[in-house]
Amino acid sequence: MTHVWPSVDAxxxxxxxxxxxxxxxxxxxxxxxxxxxxxxxxxxxxxxxxGIMLMPTSLGGAGTSSSTYAEALARxxxxxxxxxxxxxxxxxxAHPIHLQGSPEQGEKxxxxxxxxxxxxxxxxxxxxxxxxxxxxxxxxxxxxxEYVINGEKTFISNGDRAEVVxxxxxxxxxKGKDGVTAFLVETEGLDGFEVGRPMKKLxxxxxxxxxxxxxxxxxxxxxxxxxxxxxxxxxxxxxxxxRISAAAQGLGFAEGAYDATVTWAAERDLLSSRTxxxxxxxxxxxxxxxxxxxxxxxxxxxxxxxxxxPEEPVAEVSLVKLHCTALGTRVAAACVELLxxxxxxxxxxxxxxxxxxxxxxxxxxxxxIQAMLVARDxxxxxxxxxxxx
Length: 389
Prior knowledge:
- By secondary structure, this protein is an alpha+beta fold.
- The chain folds into 3 domains: 10-115, Butyryl-Coa Dehydrogenase, subunit A, domain 1 (Orthogonal Bundle); 120-228, Butyryl-CoA Dehydrogenase, subunit A, domain 2; 232-384, Butyryl-CoA Dehydrogenase, subunit A, domain 3 (Up-down Bundle).
- The chain has helices spanning 10-34, 39-47, 66-79, 81-100, 103-115, 231-267, 276-308, 314-338, 350-360, 367-384; strands at 120-123, 139-143, 146-157, 164-170, 180-186, 193-195, 209-220, 224-225.
- A 4-stranded mixed β-sheet has the order 1-4-5-8, with helices on one face. The chain has a 4-stranded antiparallel β-sheet with strand order 2-3-7-6, covered by helices on one side.
- β2 (139-143) and β3 (146-157) form a beta hairpin.
- α1 runs antiparallel to α2 (39-47), α3 (66-79) crosses α6 and α6 packs antiparallel against α7.
- The longest helix has 37 residues, at 231-267.
- It starts with 9 loop residues before the first helix and ends in a 5-residue tail after the last helix.
- 50% of the residues are buried.
- The model has no long low-confidence stretch (mean pLDDT 95).
């Protein structure tokens, strides 16, 4: 893989590629087969100073551009979906702490998340409240210098490993989204905090996903991030990065499936053969290469817009999440078909990319939600008499 995007740091990508070669790629099949948490890969990235690229260097991060982060995550995803999800969840925890946490919260936890000495998580989704945040039922009731939290969160990545969780709860269910408030919950020795068993999943099997139950769970008032009711605004500011992450994963899954298919074809001399069947495969690979290249340009352009725009480019980020995650599933499925009888051969590795890719269309806001946000922007643009593109 090569890149020429101006805002991508070539030295950082070179380091990422080295970690991929020595740790991530050799362990990827085992992580998937055994459902093993990719601790070694996460530790290696952190050791190279790449634990959380987007955090400032003053807090232990790499201070990179969003496009460098996305390029790196795409390359990690191409080799191991589980590693990419654990890795990006560390950033998804640190980002809202950096945006709205107190100085004490940031100084305590962001360096630990960056150097890999702590695992972080973010808890938003509930059994009956996913994309519609205003309907969440987890309640945080103020009691003196503490909050008492009751509720349940589900599909929480890293939840069984996390020492710190950015948790969203409502301080007043009647207020809907205006009651949503963020808390920085330290899990060690926390009474009333129960972690469910890791879920069995189609793909990304080494990235643990659990349910969290909170029953009369008391946290200090100082654990609140921002004021009461500020949680919804924080979510809106946070999702641009998490949806960029999912888009980068989609690109990576497509690229990983494509690369494995090219390797398979080269081993069988199908890339130079002039038989009709071989030429059909060559033409399809050429088409897929074009799709992947176009998606990379779209993703990195959106990253640059995120970094340069004074306001979050919500529709543009939704569009790239929608497009790239769908691409990941579509390209991986096409590659499975190109492999014929070897399409489900675990040793080839294409079926793993397909399994890993599908879930990226669901998390960080389903692709139906992304389509809704893009459609809303098209409508607003039409009413304002401006082009929607």
